[in-house]
Design goal:
By secondary structure, this protein is of the alpha+beta class. The chain has four helices and five strands. Strands 1, 2, 3, 4 and 5 form a five-stranded antiparallel β-sheet that branches. A hairpin with a 2-residue loop joins β2 and β3.
Amino acid sequence: MHRYCLTLDLKDDLALIAEYEKYHKQVWPEVLKSISDSGITAMEIYRFDTRLFMIMESVDDFSFEKKNEADAVNSKVQAWETLMWNFQEPLKKAMKGEKWVLMNKIFEL
């Protein structure tokens, strides 16, 4: 098992944040299936103000590249991602088009 932590910002708009959270109470089944099919075994998203923090656990041979390739040809996942961009805002240092940014672990107890 591998654990990854990622971060992203939301637009600073309380109505948009509320709508974003509402969507995440009922994520589309096709999106959930694509997550599971990629080898992700657990995922949690936390929010503080506009900052999102995702904890993701996966099988040992999980690959972000393979997940991205599968998502690119999945019309429902693409529709979800397009919809989510209405609420999300890339981090200042994110690369162009990059959403969730992988964080580096700096401490473990």
